[in-house]
Design brief:
mainly alpha
Length: about 140
C-alpha cells in the first residue's frame, strides 16, 4: 500500500503542477467557454493557476518525505475534496457546467477518500520491524 500511496501522491503533485502552470500561462484561454470573459477573469485565472501550481508542489514535497506524512496527505486531500464540494455548490446554484468540469468534479469527490484510506500506509510500513519478511515487503513496495 505504501508504494501505491507514493505513486498516487507523486501523480497528484505532477498533475496539479502541470494544470496550474497551464492555467497560469494561458489565463482564460485555458478554460473552455471563457474566451470573452475579459481582463478581470483572466487575472483571477492566472492567480488561481499559480496557487494550484503551489498546491501541486506541496503534494510533491509530501511525496519526497520518508515516510510520507499522513497529516499532509489528509490535509491536501481535504483541500481537493473541498474543491469538489465547491463545484457541487456551483452546479446547485448555476446548473451543470461544461462537460469536462463535471468529470473534474467526479475526480475531486472520488479521489480524496482513497487518499484518506491510504494516508498512513507509508508511516505504518516504516514502523514495521525490518526482519526478512519486512525486507521482502519493502523491496516489493519500492518496485511499485
Amino acid at each position: 500500500m505504501a508504494g501505491v500511496l507514493k505513486w498516487l501522491v507523486l501523480a497528484m503533485g505532477a498533475a496539479c503542477v502541470a494544470i496550474g502552470a497551464f492555467h497560469f500561462a494561458l489565463g482564460i484561454g485555458s478554460v473552455p467557454g471563457e474566451g470573452a470573459a475579459g481582463a478581470t477573469v483572466d487575472s483571477r485565472e492566472r492567480f488561481y493557476g499559480a496557487v494550484f501550481l503551489g498546491y501541486g508542489l506541496a503534494w510533491l514535497w509530501a511525496a519526497r518525505r520518508s515516510p510520507i506524512p499522513s497529516a499532509a496527505v489528509r490535509l491536501l486531500a481535504g483541500i481537493f475534496l473541498l474543491g469538489g464540494v465547491g463545484r457541487l455548490l456551483s452546479m446547485a446554484v448555476h446548473g451543470p457546467p461544461q462537460g469536462f468540469q463535471t468529470v473534474l468534479a467526479v475526480l475531486e469527490l472520488a479521489l480524496p477518500p482513497v487518499y484518506f484510506w491510504l494516508a498512513a500506509a507509508d508511516e505504518r510500513q516504516a514502523a514495521r520491524p525490518a526482519g526478512p519478511a519486512g525486507a521482502v515487503r519493502a523491496e516489493r513496495d519500492e518496485a511499485l
